[in-house]
Amino acid sequence: MQFDPANKIVQRCAKGMSLEGEAKTGEAYHQFQQAWNEASNDFEKFVAAHYMARHQNSVREKLKWDETALQHAIKIGEDSMKSHYPSLYLNIAKCHEDLGDSELAYLNYRKALTFADSLPGDGYGKMIKTGIDNGIERVLRVS
Question: Which phi-psi region, left, alpha or beta, contains residue 120 (left: φ > 0; alpha: ψ -120 to 50)?
Fold first, then answer.
């Protein structure tokens, strides 16, 4: 699934990211909240939820939004969405790790790893893969 720059939800989230870059986090959050409120399909909900997760004050709320983003990504059901799964599962795993649940963290890091082949071979893909590997290593040390 392509990110259409003409899509109003994508535009709101891009504006929110720009505001983040200017350290205007309150205004950025408002853009992401508006994007969520206006989202009308699974793709738009996936995008908006992903950005909402970044602006939560508690790990539990972040986890809720990360899980929401994943649920909508899965509902889309297109193979092209699988490249987003590693990052989504990584975020969910890190939340569980931060909440002290090593078992759920490990399960989600492993899920992220199962989709790692769909990551691009660029710096982003390598960063996500490293995050997954490091997360697995951390939770295995705790267990």
Answer: beta
What global pTM score does this model have?
0.92
Single-letter residue type at 75: K
Q: Which residues, including other chains, have CB under 8 Å from residue 3's CB and lie 6 or more apart?
A: 10, 47
Per-residue model confidence as pLDDT tens digits over 5-42: 899 999 999 999 999 999 999 999 999 999 999 999 99
Residues 2, 47: Cα–Cα separation, whole Å:
12
CB 45 within 8 A of CB 36: yes
Give yes or no for a contact between 32 and 16, defined as CB atoms under 8 angstroms apart: yes
Question: Which one-letter amino acid corresponds to residue 121?
Answer: G
Q: Decide if 135 contacts 94 (C-beta within 8 A).
A: yes
